[in-house]
Amino acid sequence: MSLAEAPANAASPQVTEIRPDRGLFDLDLGAVWRYRELLLVLTMRDIQVLYKQAALGAAWAILQPLFAVVIFTIIFGYFAHMPSNGIPYPVFAFAGVLPWTYFAEAVRRSSTGLVNDAELIRKIYFPRLIMPLANVVSPLLDFCIAFVVLLILMGFYGIAITPKLLLVPPLMVVAALLALSIGLWLGPINVRFRDIKHTLPFIIQIWMYASPIVYPITMVPQQWQWAYSLNPMVGVIEGFRWAVFGQGEPHFTSLAMSGVIITILLAGGLVFFRRAERTFADVI
Amino acid sequence: MSDLAISARGLGKRYQRLARSEQHDSLRDVIGAGARNLFASKAAREAREVRNSFWALKDADFDIAKGENVGIIGLNGAGKSTLLKLLSRIVTPTTGTARITGRLGALLEVGTGFHHELTGRENVFLYGSILGMTRAEVAAKFDAIVDFAEIGEFIDTPVKRYSSGMYVRLAFAVAAHLDPDILLLDEVLAVGDFAFQRKCMNFARQLERRGSTILFVSHNMFSIKSMCQRVIYLKKGQIVFDGPTAEGLKRYEDDSRLADAPWFKEAGEEGRSITFTKVELLNGRGVESNVIDFGDRITFRLHYKTDGRIERPDFRIGLDREDLIHTMTFSSHQDGVDIPSVEGEGVIEVRTPPIKLTSNFYVANLVVRDQKGGMLAAQIGGHFHVRHPTLASTFGVFNEPADWRVQAERTAEPVSEVSRGVG
What we know:
The structure holds 2 protein chains of 2 kinds. Chain A is mainly α. In chain A, 67% of the residues lie in helices and 1% in strands. Chain A has one domain (29-277). Chain B folds into 2 domains: 4-252, Rossmann fold (3-Layer(aba) Sandwich); 258-395, abc- transporter (atp binding component) like domain (Coagulation Factor XIII, Chain A, domain 1), CATH 2.70.50. Chain B has helices at residues 27-38, 42-51, 80-87, 120-130, 135-149, 164-176, 194-209, 221-227, 245-256; strands at residues 4-16, 53-65, 69-73, 95-101, 104-107, 182-186, 213-217, 230-235, 238-244, 274-282, 291-293, 299-306, 310-311, 314-321, 326-331, 341-342, 345-351, 360-369, 375-387, 404-406, 416-418. In chain B, a hairpin with a 2-residue loop joins β8 and β9. In chain B, α4 (120-130) crosses α5 (135-149), α4 crosses α6 and α5 (135-149) packs across α6. The chains are: A mainly alpha, B alpha/beta. Chains A and B meet through β1, α2 and α5 of A and α3, β4, α4, α5 and α7 of B.
């Protein structure tokens, strides 16, 4: 047994204070940092578990967006003759579906993750913030796999890659932060009211059609452009296409909008989450 | 102050107890209730909040020194688990503070955090991290953990294919290697088979020798006695005793008896017609005690009181083991004892045959049935331990020595008869 030689942790005893109220702005992000390995481990768990006992395994990360693209290509590209700014429609759609799939999955997981791990919440202490964080990070792997497929597809259609491709990671960070700031609100609400779980698929679907995924942003009438750019995902998706295809302009208004919404939702979400967190174990 | 591991002041937790009609499980209910509340006065709202809440733990003050082992005892619902959950920060207190010095490990349930689809190896890392270990720490202790759990080559099999024993052993092995300064244990030592339980107890002793502080919730008074010098006795959310183990257990055992368990009367309407007002439990020497030596006869002295006249009642004493295994029942009807009727107050004395139940904790349930088998009364009649140095639950429910004939092969030795040795 390794007990005998183990150091008695005597160096600097950690002191924990347990109090009823921690104050509105005591976010205790230090605790999240101390548990950063748990973030890694929970992310790994989500990834490992997702495709366990699926015969095709991680191929689903490619197949799911690919199916969506095939359907969109048939309906919108072939039947409806949707314009796609001179880019072959399948690639055009794929470049929209990719960041969207990541975003939708991150929102879904971070909103329902707490409830799915109710047993953990009830029996073990750890900074609860780790949960939505891991939920937002884990679908990035699927994104990366599918992104490689997109590059192959572009090569197939003879579309050149430009240095703008380097802007994909920062755009994905924006998508991740946006998903996190939504998850910080919906997660705790879902702990109390499971209605969120049932409402979410509709919200995500409506949101998808309100984003330039199956159609180009130029289809949106001029007088509605301002309202359209209130959708923070518009900037991410348009920016993504711009970075990948290297043509057109990034949608700066919408990106700025994303920034504003993220700042407000994230700051408020952190405070909200920390307040709600205290009763998770009681009501989950 | 620095030699205190835990210091709690006025620690309390209040829960809302909502009537079913007031439970808000969906948004629709909340909106409805909110609309109603809009028209209720603030005072009325607050009054309802107080009425609908209860204190799972109230005004708990205690200090636990470093290296101390403290048992927490109390009936179900007395607040034991709430106390551990507060200290482990799973729930936030309503009032009071607690100061914890050192690394705290809490084992409230073995194996939550395991993921069924993952292999044993993956789960060791997952569960270790959840409990607060670093990956490097888990990696360094990995072999010791697998060794301790006696899992062997199954370590790379998904845990959903494990037997429940393997599952629990692996989970406990991870938790046991947490090396905490303060360990909160909730009945988890009662897992696995006898050999593994002994291993766990040894491990806890090793922690103790290392100077770890252990808080131990258990219904098993023997474990408490052997592990703790001090007990905190909780009753209805309040600390009613904090001091030496022997004295605390005495108070607990006194309280556990009939007089304080009226809540258990769950018989039907007509069942109110007979109640047991006092139950005495005498050991083999005729002394009132909760510890019975294996093979002793127990005497139950049942003091009853009826509201009316009961014809031909069937008095029954059922003995349930700690894990709710119903081991045996004594019935006056079955034993051919004719009790024509009972009325008013009286005493019934039941002397059992030598008790051959294996060493464990038992509950005696008292039941009275009428002629047609209808339930007139059902109450807890007391708790007791059966004591034996070797015969534990690994031997099953009950033990009676057999006649053994041992014949050695290829020798001309005569058949030797091993005589029975009760003891």
